[in-house]
Amino acid sequence: MKLVSWNVNGLRAVWKKNFKQVLETLDADVFCIQETKLQADHLDAAIKNIAGYESYWSHCSVKKGYSGVGAWIRVVPESVKYGIGISAYDAEGRILELDLDGFVLFNIYFPNGQMSDERLSYKLDFYRDFFDYANQLKDAGRSLVITGDYNTAHNEIDLKNPAANANTSGFLRVERDWLDAIEAAGYVDTFRYFYPDRVQYSWWSYRSRARQRNAGWRIDYFFVTRDMVEDGRVKEAFIADDIHGSDHCPVGLIIDDPDGSNSGG
Q: Using an 8 Å Cβ cutoff, are 127 and 110 in contact?
């Protein structure tokens, strides 16, 4: 089963560029996107009804053209949830939960903390409250895959200029501590699991020709519960940095069933 995640920074904009071509090229069984910037009435049939997929959407209800997540999936999930029951987060359309029987998939657009101290606090509270929710499922024995734009580069290897950004939200020690805590709680950064020393990024500022210079950040992740690594389900992780259309590029994960048989397309 191939899972892909991409912050599209506006679905209508990337749809006009190359979105369907990217979807076809990557041939994902599950294709998650963040920052759709769409309300429900903007989702026309061409977007919702891509052949071979069912789609699911969580929209921001407090601000038009903001936030939002969605997913196209080839296998109908056991259940779908939108949010975690905390209105401050759910109203921004940041969380989509898909129960795929063998594991629970979360598609998350974690907040950006650069706007103000208030938004930084919101971001840190979001980390705490979301992982409190996720940990309840993990502690109950569920396997979890948590993908999306985490809006934090974890370690110095994960961005081009760590020293210059030490006081910038996205690389603050208090934000990075949350990713440390996630790993300590039993979650695995799948890209780093396979490639501990690889320098590869998933986001580049639109300013200063950052992408041309590859002055980027790795802030888009697939974290999984450790059991999925230990039982052999996690097979490969990748960053598709040759794909353009957004200031982010897609990231991906390939998983198999524990017995080694492929569980999807």
A: yes
Q: Tokens representing 87?
A: 């209105």
For the residues 149-171, what does the mean pLDDT come to? 98
Distance, in Å, from the CA atom of 145 to the CA atom of 123, rounded to the nearest integer, reads 20
For residue 219, which of 136, 108, 121 has the smallest C-alpha distance?
A: 108
Q: Is 149 an active-site residue?
A: yes
pTM for this predicted structure: 0.96
Q: Which CA distances in Å does 245 have to 12, 14, 122, 259?
A: 11, 6, 29, 37
Please state the domain extents for the chain: 2-255
Question: What CATH architecture applies to the domain 2-255?
Answer: 4-Layer Sandwich (3.60)
User: Which residues, 6 or more positions from 202, have their beta carbon under 8 angstroms from its beta carbon?
Assistant: 216, 217, 218, 219, 220, 239, 241, 248, 249, 251
> What are the residues whose beta carbons fall under 8 Å from the beta carbon of 55, sequence distance 6 or more?
47, 48, 49, 70, 71, 72, 73
Mean pLDDT of 236-258: 94
Sign (positive or negative) of CA dihedral 65, 71, 76, 82: negative
Catalytic member of 29, 149, 227, 241: 149
pLDDT(257) > 50: yes
